[in-house]
Fold each of these.
Amino acid sequence: MIAALLAGLALGAVSAPHCLGMCGPLAAFAAMPPRGATTSARASRPLRWQLGRLAAYATLGAGAGAMGAQALRALAPSSWAGAALSFTLAAALLLSAVRLWAPRWWARTADVGAARLTRGRANPSLTSRLVARAPREPFVLGAITALLPCGASWSALIVAAGAGSIAAGAIAMIGFASASGAALAFAGAIGARTASSVTFRRSLAAVLAVGALITVLRPLPSLRADVGEPPSCHAH
């Protein structure tokens, strides 16, 4: 157990700069309180995001520990499955960017969509439905973060799988999430304190939009290879 925890902590510490660059904007976004939030709700948002991320990683680690390293490698997602996940996450990042760039439009659309869905009105617009159902709870956003396609988290899962048990696998991933989460706490603190800054919100929206584009482009070379097209020289 101690060895698994130390391995997870070490990998998380080494991966902290990478995690800050990849998930830092999401941590800042999740920490931004909605209008009218109470003081306690505002203060707890970064912590709830971290707890959601920690719970998701612990669950993944327990599953990896149950399967073992060899089985986990055998179950590595196919190119098409990975692409589907990447495209879904890109859509989530893009929705987050829109929410930051145009918060008033987002709030109006969410209210209209929620009202129509609650009253059972026919044919609410697709935009209204997407916005109304988009996750807003930091714990949920943190849990979703653990599903991002990431080489660092996959390496941590291999370590968890090699830990030899469900408990040890979960502990290894808790160590990874805790050490890497220390860097993300910095991004969350910035997001919580600068939520009222239009410039910061729009800058963060631009970063999330770029992240969505990168997430869409990443699996394309593998998909081209699967359908028989050699990957371009820029794929590497």
Amino acid sequence: MRNDVKTSPTKVAILDWQMSSLRSPVFDISYLVYSTGSGVELEKFDELLEFYYDSFSNFLKELGSNAEEIFPYSSLKEHWRKYALFGLLMAILCLPIILCDKEDVVAFEDLKEDQNFSEMITFNVKEKDLCYQRIKNIVSHYIKYTL
């Protein structure tokens, strides 16, 4: 074995293929931004989108491609107007789950065969005001950046 070959892992990456498909990156970006961002992050949205695009461009450059030819920044912004609704709707569905306490979520292994599905997706969000404020922030942001 060569001395310069590492035998131990140096990085760990988690890949979630559950919702993967060939589509605009805005589906994933909008879901991430709206489900995790508070008003503070949404105020810096332009910076976040530019940072994403710079990283995307650099990655394509390393692969020997030109991002401005393949998918210019103007296309990313146009895709935001077209597809960010996905992230908005997913965030509205997921925020009660994200903001509830761990003990308030029904574990799948604890479900009974005759249990109503609505019981499984009903969450006790103790900080309802926070949840409503986050939803208000993302809806306002969506309106500002898509209409």
Amino acid sequence: MTFPMIALLQAGYYTQESAGISYSAATMGMFVLIIAIGVIGFIVQARLQSVFKKYSKVQFPGGLTGAEVAEKMLRDNNIHNVKVTHVGGHLTDHFNPQTMTINLSDSVYSSTSVAAAAVAAHECGHAVQHAQGYAPLVLRSQLVPVVQFASSAATWVIILGLVILASTQNELLCWIGVGMIAMSAVFSLVTLPVEYNASARAVEWLQTSRTMQGAQLAQAKEALSWAARTYLVAALSAIASVLYYVFLILGRRD
């Protein structure tokens, strides 16, 4: 996934000028890359919605609802302090370690479809991670308050930093802002193993517990793989955003 960025740099995004290196082309390149990733993200999200809708119509043998699948997976993993609850919305499913709840959306909680079972098992995968002290999940939880503050303040810090840079050539505040944006990128990167591992745990349990087999298991894998790709696109977008601001600040030196 990093190859396109390397290719862009090799294609001449670092241009030599008499005063030194110009980063204006690199800044524009990163801006275009962010837009491209945004388009890819839209396509991936649309595909996820399509796959979920398709497999929401496919029932699997056993007739378990999403809530029952979640409760069964929790019991099989000897987790008895997590409650399965219902929340409104579509694909708003999540595990909340603070309230120790698996929160399943309207389209999952009472549905007996392949898609509902896959999502429910995935969220239980997070509960299993929490019970076992899975390191990336622990780190992500620790980063949440830091990222919430940094993401809300970063843009304003960079804008103020650029104003100061224009008059004083002092870059410190700009780099503090970039550091704040970088925290979101770190969070996105840490999220990747958390989500992929939860899906792997879900698929393994669905198979070993014989909750799903054959075609239905393959369909569940497909649904979860498209969900995981949304997090991959988010991570790439966060990295591109950091690079954009880095080149923007460096370009002010010209």
Amino acid sequence: MILGGLWSFNNCCLFIHKLAYGENPKDVNFHYADFWFQVHDLPSRFTSEPLARNLG
């Protein structure tokens, strides 16, 4: 069992989805992924949520 966040293989994102009974594999959406970024030494004026959303 694989738990946790994003996984990678060969420097590419690895997406895993456990199919529910009767679920069509063609209907699984792999177009989006959540990412977390850590930025060091960021000036305090750049630490607002609206700015982070715009950068994302």
